[in-house]
Write a structure and sequence with these properties.
The protein is an alpha+beta fold. The protein contains two helices and nine strands; from the N terminus they run αβββββββββα. It has a domain of 97 residues: Sandwich (Immunoglobulin-like). α1 runs antiparallel to α2. The radius of gyration is 28 Å and the shape is rod-shaped. The relative contact order is 0.18.
């Protein structure tokens, strides 16, 4: 009887420890950029460099940097596929007049080390700058597991903490019922006089 209880208790403990030790679910993030967000420069750069918190996945077509002027004209040739090297992305710019007063918008989308795309937008100005035609949102993690394919399917970032807790409580409840049934069976089976 005690051996069964000890085995059951050990199995229950191991299960609880396994379930409660959930891994961290965090995307990589942009840690720096050249030029920096909201920077004011005297002359436009010839390239944009973005540095992230971890190495990026080099997926064909998955890492893009688009740079536009205040009129929305692209300063990047083609689709904006950027050069990835470890945790750094570099995008070369094609500027007609690097000294002109202008406000530039940098929109980036990369595949983080966990395979999920992250994206963001920021601005910098050259000289006095110009007013951009559309508002810019801050950097954000894209919550789509199929965003690389353009799908709108939601991606769950692991199980919610309450679900882990509920699973743990369910296991405890099943274990307690099993112990009670074993005790009841043993108490009623064998002591007749």
């Amino acid at each position: 009887m005690r051996t069964i209880l000890r085995t059951l208790l050990a199995a229950l403990t191991a299960t609880l420890l396994t379930l409660t030790a959930a891994p961290a679910y965090a995307h990589d993030e942009l840690v720096s950029s050249t030029p920096a967000a909201d920077a004011t420069l005297s002359k436009a750069p010839t390239e944009i460099t973005l540095t992230y918190s971890a190495n990026l996945m080099n997926v064909e077509g998955g890492n893009r940097v688009r740079v536009t002027d205040s009129a929305g004209n692209s300063l990047v040739e083609g689709k904006g596929d950027a050069k990835v090297s470890g945790n750094t992305v570099t995008q070369t710019l094609n500027l007609k007049d690097p000294a002109a007063d202008e406000t530039y918008t940098v929109t980036w989308r990369v595949v983080s080390s966990d395979g999920h795309p992250i994206q963001g937008t920021y601005r910098f100005t050259v000289g006095a700058g110009k007013t951009a035609s559309a508002p810019v949102s801050s950097a954000s993690a894209e919550q789509s597991s199929e965003a690389q394919n353009g799908s709108d399917t939601e991606h769950k970032e692991g199980l919610a903490p309450w679900l882990w807790g509920g699973g743990g409580l369910l296991i405890l409840l099943v274990g307690a019922i099993a112990v009670m049934l074993i005790r009841k069976r043993n108490d009623g089976s064998g002591t007749t006089k």
